[in-house]
Design goal:
heterodimer; A: 5 strands; about 5% strand; B: alpha/beta; two-stranded antiparallel sheet; about 55% helix; disordered C terminus
Chain lengths: ~575, ~475
């Protein structure tokens, strides 16, 4: 019998031949399902915010208008993308931008930004599920953790409202995933991917540079301690690994700075320009609540613990755990998410940034990942436990229950506390201004002057007015930094000469001989037009006569005035 | 009356070109190809006269597309190699435990020309091969008029298993001709080639035998990996080693994984002798006969695999010498590309559309990429210098900027993938020199232009590479040979 088996090892038991044509549906899987559901959820909410409540975030509309300037301005060019803010969110929108001819609201209301943030956040949700599965977190606690992330009020809002937070979180989650994979497999390829995602993260948000530095430090430590051989050999391995993770973000940093320098003459527009961070900080200094100015540390703790009440406890738990059973995964999480949070806290404490609640959003993914890390550690310990404890039903139930309890205790409370914080004008001015109903009951003029719902409605009125004028292309002069909302919602964007056009300075210097018919100016901002003609807004500066003023009914503090340029005599 | 030696000589030089002229490089251009090139040139000239701007746009789009395609193809190959490492690995134990009785006779061809001082080293390296002496058929292929080398070999004494084959002088004087000559008296079931300065890993032949015994019968050739023992000599050898690492450990493996014809590397390719003879041996008119053979095997429906065993060579450490060697390689790649695209439809029929595309992007793309790279660097320099007006006149900004962005991204991707591959295969000490690779590309560009010019002026001229530059410290004189 044995010999027979040896001789004919390939013989298979006879099977009835069945040829059945089955319709094959593509397998979606957990990640795909979560992503699809989340896309629908976030984008629908975004539509409700934009179209029902007219809640348009200024930064979101500004990104859309940047892309709009690249493709549809009078002088379309890639350089019109703008160098104050990061290019990735705008570049990703470009392929969809032409759809505005089918559905003008995509750009006019900035809804394209909401679609982008919705997709990015949804992909982040799917990615989180994949990552937790790779770490060995079991299904029930894993899905709860994913839900705790996806349904966190801040995540919902920033998935829906078109801001770049979603893209930034997505990139950094991808970084953490690749870094932890590298730590478990040692595959250089994973390390390289984390470097590439760091570069993308930098092009999505400048804060990522801190994450990149933190990742390089972590890689240096892990690589050096793991390498074998003499000191010099270990150093050379560690340096190579650092280069692999650090080179892409460094190239992104250098590449973007050089591009900016070559096009607008300054490598770091985000800091130095009239519309950059420093200038905005000065402009908004008065908007900061008293409590934040008096005791910034306490204010920060209130904000962070409102988003994740048990974060401090969790950090203590993680520290104890790290002492008892070391895993470098914690380092990857802290480098990818904690570093970004830490630098925001530090910048605010030293007065270099705003009090916005959204700058602390990274506490949410950090918490979820840390809990996931704790749970995955239980999985790792399993083989010893199996020896000690028989795998009976009660033990299984107890273990599942404790996992679920941990997730519930850490991730449940923020659903309430974060919602409360986000509707508080003191703790979160921006979110409260943009959330429908947040200011109705407890609108306190001490913190905010009013709701930001409908803040771009006057821009749309201006656009409609100019659309109805008999103005040829290139006849309306406006600084894009204040007029982007007007231009992006106009039917004839080519009528505007904006500061990204190459002939803007010439037109500004001598509007009449440049055939400029109208100049659009605003109160409140020191834009290029009002710097050139300081009294233009109030009296026309002897070069123009007032045509129309649009009263500002909302909190943006901008009043548009359209002037008609006096013809040359 | 023809002697056996004459017959062997004529087989070596004319067998392929007589029996299958369509795949021989003796006459390089097919008529259709010449017509196509002439038509293209006329079109460009007329276009430039009629509308310089639109012709500029189309040329720029063309160059950018080729550049993008070649770079993307390489990244895909690397990705394939990482995801599914397609390389045959035979452990030391498996190689040693293979029953001695079953080991076949193995032919090793060692062409040498004008290098008497490496003879001692060569004999030592070859005697280190772990294979039964009586089953080794090592043939030292020496040219009849190369007296110094012949004397050096005679003085050193020929160990058992070695045989000196004297190749009669005849044109073309190339390495493949010598190998064809040696092949006719080869007794081995398998044949491999080593250069005079090669130091093969001792178990390589055994590994190849085990691999062949397990492989698909259609596997006609196993390419072992090449690396350099003198990589630390200077920056050029470091770059060269880094490049070879990516080439053999990732790109070739990626070609196997994607079902693309594999151009063989200069030495250490182990081939079934019968297949080799059936297909007429090496093309003596092609200056990269190894690459050409790989493609011909693929076109005949045979497979080439990569064997995880390393042969150490000497990296070219001298700038001029390097450019000469590289220009020959680029010329040979262009020759190979031209020969095998004479009848594109037939190529597609034989290796599939994917294989034909991959072949074009890899074998044609390598020298073309080296020539296109300076173009994109030039654009970048002009751009930083302030976009001169003729550029604005010739190219619309969108095209120009996209080309520029592709160039920069492509360059970054190339530097980065090289560094990652080097680290991945344990060459972490090469990583820092990888950052300076753009200077290496300047050398590549020079070699590519030289190779392309030579393709027109002297298609079968063999640029001699000087070997032994790593030995100069010990007082030995460098030598020139035809094998590199």
């Amino acid at each position: 019998m044995t010999s027979l088996a040896l001789v004919r090892p390939t013989e298979r038991p006879a099977q009835p031949i069945r040829r059945q044509r089955r319709v094959r549906l593509p397998r979606i899987g957990e990640r795909g399902a979560l992503t699809i559901v989340s896309v629908v959820f976030y984008v629908t909410l975004g539509a409700v915010l934009v179209f029902h409540y007219d809640s348009v975030m200024g930064d979101a509309l500004a990104r859309v208008s940047d892309g709009h300037a690249v493709l549809f301005s009078r002088d379309p060019k890639l350089a019109a993308v703008g160098f104050v803010w990061t290019p990735l969110p705008v570049l990703l929108m470009l392929p969809l931008m032409p759809l505005k001819f089918l559905w003008p609201a995509l750009t006019a209301r900035g809804f394209l930004a909401n679609i982008e943030s919705g997709i990015a956040m949804a992909v982040a949700v799917g990615l989180l599920a994949t990552m937790l599965r790779e770490w060995g977190v079991r299904r029930a606690p894993r899905l709860m953790l994913v839900a705790a992330f996806a349904l966190h009020p801040m995540i919902i809002l920033y998935g829906a409202n078109g801001m770049t937070e979603a893209l930034f979180i997505l990139c950094m989650l991808a970084v953490v995933r690749r870094l932890t994979n590298w730590m478990t497999t040692g595959a250089t390829w994973q390390l390289a991917m984390s470097g590439v995602f760091l570069a993308l993260a930098y092009l999505a948000r400048y804060e990522a540079i801190v994450g990149a530095l933190a990742c390089v430090v972590v890689v240096l430590m892990v690589s050096f301690t793991r390498a074998s051989g003499a000191w010099g050999e270990r150093r050379s391995v560690a340096v190579a690994d650092c280069l692999i993770v650090g080179l892409p973000p460094a190239m992104a940093f250098i590449g973007w700075s050089v591009t900016s320098w070559a096009i607008v003459g300054s490598p770091f527009e985000q800091f130095t320009s009239n519309y950059g961070n420093s200038a905005q900080l000065a402009a908004f200094a008065n908007g900061m609540p008293l409590s934040a100015r008096r005791d910034p540390i306490k204010f920060l703790i209130r904000q962070v613990t409102a988003l994740e009440p048990l974060i401090l406890l969790l950090l203590v738990l993680i520290a104890c755990y790290a002492v008892a059973r070391w895993t470098p995964r914690v380092l990857a999480i802290l480098a990818g998410t904690g570093s970004v949070l830490a630098v925001q806290l530090l910048l605010f404490a030293t007065g270099h940034t705003f009090q916005w609640l959204r700058f602390k959003i990274f506490v949410v993914p950090m918490t979820v990942l840390l809990v996931g890390c704790l749970l995955s550690a239980r999985v790792r310990r399993e083989p010893d436990e199996v020896l000690l404890a028989p795998k009976n039903g009660w033990w299984m139930i107890a273990r599942a229950a404790s996992s679920i309890a941990l997730v519930a205790v850490v991730c449940g409370p923020p659903l309430l506390t974060a919602t409360k914080a986000m509707t508080s004008p003191e703790l979160s001015r921006e979110e409260a201004q943009h959330l429908p109903g947040a200011l109705s009951a407890k609108h306190d003029p001490k913190y905010v002057t009013g709701t930001a719902l409908g803040q771009f409605s006057s821009d749309r009125q201006v656009a409609a007015y100019i659309d109805n004028l008999a103005a040829p292309d290139g006849s309306v002069l406006v600084d894009y930094a204040v007029g982007f909302g007007v231009v992006v919602s106009a039917q004839h964007p080519r009528r505007f000469i904006i500061d990204r056009d190459r002939d803007f300075q010439a037109a500004l210097a001598d509007p009449a001989s440049f055939h400029v018919r109208y100049i659009l100016v605003t109160s409140g901002y020191q834009d290029a037009v009002s710097r050139a003609y300081p009294t233009l807004y109030s009296d026309g500066a002897n070069i123009a006569t007032l045509v129309h003023t649009w009263p500002d009914s909302r909190s943006r503090g901008i009043i548009f005035r359209l002037y008609h340029v006096k013809p040359l005599t | 009356m023809t002697t056996p030696a004459d017959r062997r000589l004529s087989w070596s030089t004319d067998r392929l070109s007589d029996s299958r002229p369509e795949v021989s490089a003796r006459t390089l251009w097919a008529r259709g190809q010449l017509r196509f090139l002439l038509g293209l040139a006329v079109l460009i000239v007329v276009g430039l006269l009629l509308s310089p701007r639109w012709t500029g746009v189309l040329l720029m789009i063309g160059c950018t597309s080729v550049y993008l395609a070649v770079i993307s193809h390489r990244l895909i190959l690397i990705r394939t190699a990482i995801a599914r490492p397609d390389m045959i690995r035979i452990s030391d134990a498996e190689a040693r435990e293979f029953p001695e009785k079953l080991l076949p006779v193995y032919t090793v061809l060692v062409p040498a020309y004008g290098e008497p001082e490496v003879v001692g080293q060569l004999l030592a390296n070859l005697t280190a091969i772990d294979y039964p002496r009586d089953k080794l058929d090592i043939k030292l292929l020496l040219e009849e008029d190369d007296h110094p080398t012949r004397e050096a070999v005679a003085a050193a004494g020929i160990p058992p298993g070695f045989e000196v084959v004297v190749v009669p002088p005849a044109e073309p004087r190339t390495k493949p001709k010598a190998c064809n000559y040696g092949l006719q008296t080869a007794r081995g079931r398998y044949v491999t080639i080593y250069d005079a300065e090669d130091k093969p890993e001792p178990l390589q032949l055994r590994r190849a035998v085990v691999a062949f015994s397990r492989a698909d019968p259609r596997t006609a050739c196993l390419q072992a990996k090449l690396s350099y023992h003198n990589f630390d000599q200077n920056l050029i050898t470091r770059w060269f080693t880094a490049e070879y690492d990516v080439w053999f450990s990732y790109l070739l493996s990626g070609l196997v994984g994607t079902g693309t014809p594999v151009p063989l590397g200069g030495t250490s390719n182990h081939i079934r002798r019968r297949a080799l003879r059936t297909f007429g041996g090496w093309d003596p008119y092609n200056v990269t006969e190894d690459a050409d053979l790989g493609i011909r095997l693929a076109r005949a429906g045979l497979r080439v695999e990569v064997l995880d065993s390393v042969t150490m060579e000497e990296a070219n450490s001298d700038f001029v010498n390097w450019v000469k060697q590289r220009s020959r390689w680029y010329k040979g790649y262009l020759q190979t590309f031209i020969v095998h695209t004479r009848d594109p439809r037939r190529l597609v029929r034989e290796v599939g559309l994917k294989g034909a595309l991959g072949f074009s992007l890899f074998v044609g793309g390598t020298p073309i990429l080296a020539m296109l790279n300076p173009l994109f660097w030039g654009l970048a320099v002009l751009w930083v210098a302030g976009e001169p007006s003729w550029i604005a006149a010739l190219f619309p900004p969108v095209v120009y900027h996209l080309a520029l962005a592709c160039g920069l991204l492509g360059n970054m991707a190339t530097v980065y993938s090289t560094i990652v591959c080097n680290r991945g295969s344990g060459h972490h000490r090469l990583v820092m020199s990888g950052l300076l690779a753009p200077a290496y590309w300047v050398m590549m560009a020079m070699a590519a232009v030289k190779g392309a010019l030579q393709l027109v002026l002297a298609p079968s001229h063999w640029e001699k590479t000087i070997h032994g530059l790593d030995l100069t410290k010990s007082g030995a004189k460098p030598s020139a040979d035809e094998a590199s």
